[in-house]
Write a sequence for this structure.
């Protein structure tokens, strides 16, 4: 099926109130333009340099999300334009985003990346680490970042109940953080979880953003 047809099928399973992020990493501009022509406006990338090049080349009403692991020395490339950074996994990274956003005269929306999987390869805070950061008051010093929710990746497994449990755990973490630290901030409302293989489960467990790549664009193409 074409990108347009894939998008049409996926949208049937993404209810109103859930943002579909088309993950365009490694995909050529032509594939992104096909999705754009089909009405898609929110795209996610993993690598800052690739994201920056695509932002320069493609229509300016695209909303770009940084969804991959972000090194502090790469923040400056995306700070002028990125709409949302999903992968904030350390206080140091937050401080750098704040500094680079200030240089651009922007406030950048961010998500806390939470470690919910049973895999060593995933990044993120655990609940105790995040609670310690929030209790410290350090975030009050940051004027150019706005925390709007949480993100997590489930274990890469065929065990549906394990995946469902990890998504359920992220929703519970979000609820605790929201009630304790962000109850008066309506902007703190996002739960980014679910990818091509498991986004339907994620939506059932409360996801507000799903990151779908291969189900829209087909398998990955690795750039030379």
């Amino acid at each position: 099926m074409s990108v347009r047809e894939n998008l049409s099928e996926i949208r049937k399973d993404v209810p109103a109130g859930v943002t579909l992020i088309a993950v365009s990493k490694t995909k050529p501009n032509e594939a992104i333009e096909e999705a754009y022509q089909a009405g898609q406006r929110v795209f996610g990338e993993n690598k800052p340099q690739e994201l920056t090049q695509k932002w320069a080349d493609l229509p300016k009403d695209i909303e770009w999300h940084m969804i991959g692991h972000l090194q502090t020395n790469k923040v400056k490339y995306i700070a002028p334009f990125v709409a949302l950074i999903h992968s904030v996994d350390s206080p140091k990274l937050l401080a750098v985003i704040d500094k680079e956003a200030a240089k651009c005269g922007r406030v950048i929306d961010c998500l806390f990346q939470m470690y919910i999987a049973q895999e060593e390869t995933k990044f993120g805070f655990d609940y105790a680490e995040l609670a310690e950061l929030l209790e410290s008051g350090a975030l009050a010093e940051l004027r150019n970042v706005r925390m709007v929710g949480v993100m997590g990746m489930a274990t890469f497994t065929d065990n549906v109940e394990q995946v469902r449990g990890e998504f359920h755990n992220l929703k519970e973490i979000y609820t605790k953080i929201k009630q304790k630290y962000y109850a008066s901030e309506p902007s703190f409302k996002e739960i980014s979880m679910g990818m091509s293989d498991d986004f339907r489960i994620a939506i059932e467990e409360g996801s507000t953003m799903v990151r779908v790549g291969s189900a829209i664009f087909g398998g990955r193409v690795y750039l030379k």
Notes: Strands lie at 19-23, 42-45, 63-66, 84-88, 108-114, 145-152, 190-192, 209-212.
